[in-house]
Fold:
Amino acid sequence: MQAPRLQTVLTIARRSAKAGFRSTATIADSFATTFAYVGAATASNFDLHVGARWTRRWATRLGRRFGMRMDIRGTMPDYPALVVANHRSYVDIPAVGSLVPAHFIAKADIRDWPLLGFTFRVSPSLFVDRRNAEKRRQLRRDVRERFEKGVSIINFAEGTT
Structure:
């Protein structure tokens, strides 16, 4: 009877180690991409298009790290667009973000999250404070400005995971 228990413990340990490695690698990858983006953004005087391309690059790398495989049908627009999707899990971010160079709209409290908050603060993301009417108006102005400059926006309308 001991062998099946040992096998179960070993399986759990192996899966936990794999998950731990993947999580650590994901965080390291995000920071490396973030710092590379800061260099590229500084060199381009924080050009919004550079930020959109780096956001897509970050999302694509994150998706690969998660082992995502996607079946994409149709094409994304080659003009500035508002990409709206439901937000059911954290996998949605790299899945949708890898489709088109764009800037995310994120809820304001993400700025204060450990680790990921730093990445979003230095990225070209826009933040929304749904409780503050003036900040919502400012967000609309910022979105309009980015559209006018040719940058797409990704918004998870139900961003309440």
In short: Residues 60 and 98 are 5 Å apart (CA to CA). The first strand starts at residue 82 and ends at 85. The mean pLDDT is 87. The chain is about 55% helix and 10% strand.
